[in-house]
Amino acid sequence: MGYFSNLKSFYRQLPFYYTRQLLILVILKMASSSFLIVSPFLSKLYVDDAFINKDLHNFLRISIWGAVIFILSALFLALEDIAKNRTKTKLKLNVADRFIRKLFALELDFFYAKSTGENAYRLADIDLQTDFLAEHAPRFFVDLLKLIVILGISLWVNVPMTVFLLVLSPLFLLNSFFIQKKLSPLYREIWRCGVRISQKTHEAFSRILIIKALGLETFQRHAYLKSLIANLRLGISSFRWSVINTLSSSFLAKLIYGLVTLFGGWLIIQGGLTIGSYAAAMLYLIQLGSLLESLSHRFEYIARESVVLEKFLEIMDREPGIQDLPEAKSLSRLQGDIRFKNVTFGYQQKELIFKGLSFNIPPFAWVAVAGPSGCGKSTLVSLILRLYEPRQGELFLDGVDLKKVRLQDLRKNIAIATQQPLLFDISIQENIKSGLKHLTPRQMQEAISISCLEDWIKELPRGLETLIGEDACLLSHGIRQRVALARAIIRKPALLILDEAISSVDALTQERILRVLRQSREGLSTIIISHQLSSVQDADRIYFLSGGNQNGRMEEGSHAELMLQSPGYREFFKL
Asked: What are the phi and psi torsion angles at 545 (to 5°)?
């Protein structure tokens, strides 16, 4: 029942257009099956009205009707294939778009809890979903309709033989229910094993440098093969049950058809059935039995599909942990007035990073945040970007509760460059633009100049069109940081956050970048996070976080003020 409730939920999420298209597919499939449905009745007419009576006129008339029905069914079959292909393509695009849209809307915690390999595996399963919707679901509904139609015709042709078959038909379903009960846990484990293989493959290839540097090729190969062998063993187990299902179904089908045949022969001997009616009844009952057998086989498919559908709906039915409130306001341009009020936060409930933290960052300022590793500097950034929400307390931006600011407007006004520059496998220019349109060459040149990239780019044969490889593997870490910095600068954000963004750049280049950047950021808000004194000492205001901030206090002031008032600050910079 869980599968059918999931299926119902899935169909409800589809736009009406696709529901209508699927209905059209059912109608076309039913029409294309008309010849198969009518052909047993035509056989009866041939035998009783044409062959036994040797009536040429009836023979020709029946043949013409048969030819017309055959041509029409072939035409409907062609139309069905065209409609199915068109629907399948559009449906795949729609389902993939909605799935990716929902996936990207989920909170950061979800992506830390689920591996990239698992999410990629879920995305690959979309092909199975669209195949089911455009092909298997219409076929299932058509089989149900054909079952009703053929049952009605069979009862009209011969009631005793049809009733006899119906009495025996539960044998098909009982066998399938048993097989499905055995296969469901197997298919669930196969899915989990497939996720592990995807995860290990992605992990290995994304860390190929360290694998080669430490000589871990054999270890990684064995780990992959171990997961693959486990998957193959599960596949063999499911195959065994499939074979058992096929053999038992085939045996039951032959047994049932044999009993029906004997019963029909007895009716003929008793004079209660003509040969033509017997032939037609047997053909219809064979079709009826085939449909029952086909429906029983679909339970095996349902066992496999239910796992995929469940994992798909696990994402689609999940509400993002962080989203716009109904009363969320638009934000055209922020000033950068940030206020933490009694903020308590920790990634784990029992391991708090801040407790009752309160401080204020003034607008249009060049400020710095310093402190030892693990004290919560980057966590402050995550809270400002609303990647996480405080467990207690409030955070205000330009006097507005951050929860009441639209996420799209918030992040459109903020740009960030981090210590680990995350770049894409595209050209340098496309990385810097990152989705921005209508940029002028002057804007591009300004961002490149501030980031001190112009001399390096001039040395490249293809310049800005140079591809940088996956994870920017063709660039040094310092160059990656400067490309990521240019990407942040070119967006002209109202608030720019640099989280150890140029820590791998040499001291002279760092000094030049910060000097030029500060001039270009006049009248805008900038937050610098760094361990280096040279990066923070000239800030308008410095916020110093010590190792333990659960007392709700933070030391702040200019460099000179902190030198006088904060022993921790002096010790941190060894002054």
From this structure: -105, 125
